[in-house]
Amino acid sequence: MTVLSAHERSWLDRALISIIAAEVGPSAGDLEHAPELDLWRPQINVFGELVLEGNVCGHPTLGDKAIITSPVIALDPDGRWVRTVSRWYRLQHHDPRVGHVHRAHPYLAPFLPPDRAQIERRLEVYIEWLREMDAHDRQARGRADKDGHR
């Protein structure tokens, strides 16, 4: 079992914080300050993670443009918000082009976008995987610390 690199650990910690935030749900302030994602649709990236593709407005680093989000942690069943590893987004209009496969972007896998049941299952499995990765890394770090202090 290998210890995660500092970069990998930092990313995993951000993902775990996002999971906790999603379990609580967004506050009014979270959504008030969140960028808007319009004409969004779920996609699967080349790593098998659920992401949203759409047009963002008010993103703190990207501004206003077409984007692919970081991996999704939670998607509001009513389509009002999404929590990604990076941040909250306020969702605007869902892209009606169901079944559209976006092959032009090398980051997106050439699969049909998932339906709601597939989204829920994918998110459940992804969160479970992130938590298992955390547990394995903590166990590996404990072993490494123990071996280093002998």
- The backbone outline, from C-alpha atoms, is globular
The number of E-state strands comes to 6
Class computed from helices, strands and strand pairing:
alpha+beta
Order of helices and strands: HHEEEEEEH
Share of helical residues: 25-40%
Largest sheet report: 6 strands, mixed
| CA-atom Rg in angstroms | 17 Å
What's the overall average pLDDT, rounded? Answer: 87
Give the terminus-to-terminus CA distance: 19 Å
Low-confidence region ranges: none
How do the helices and strands line up, and which of them pair or pack?
Blueprint: H1 6-24, H2 28-32, E1 36-44, E2 50-59, E3 63-68, E4 72-75, E5 81-84, E6 88-91, H3 116-148
Parallel strand pairs: 1-6
Antiparallel strand pairs: 1-2, 2-3, 4-5, 5-6
Helix pairs in contact: 1-3
What can you tell me about this protein's structure?
This protein is of the alpha+beta class and 150 residues long. The chain has one domain (6-148). Helices cover 38% and strands 25% of the residues. It contains 3 helices and 6 strands, in the order H-H-E-E-E-E-E-E-H. The chain has helices at residues 6-24, 28-32, 116-148, and strands spanning 36-44, 50-59, 63-68, 72-75, 81-84, 88-91. Strands 3-2-1-6-5-4 form a 6-stranded mixed β-sheet. Strand 5 (81-84) and strand 6 (88-91) form a beta hairpin. Helix 1 packs across helix 3 (116-148). The radius of gyration is 17 Å and the shape is globular. The two termini are 19 Å apart. The mean pLDDT is 87.
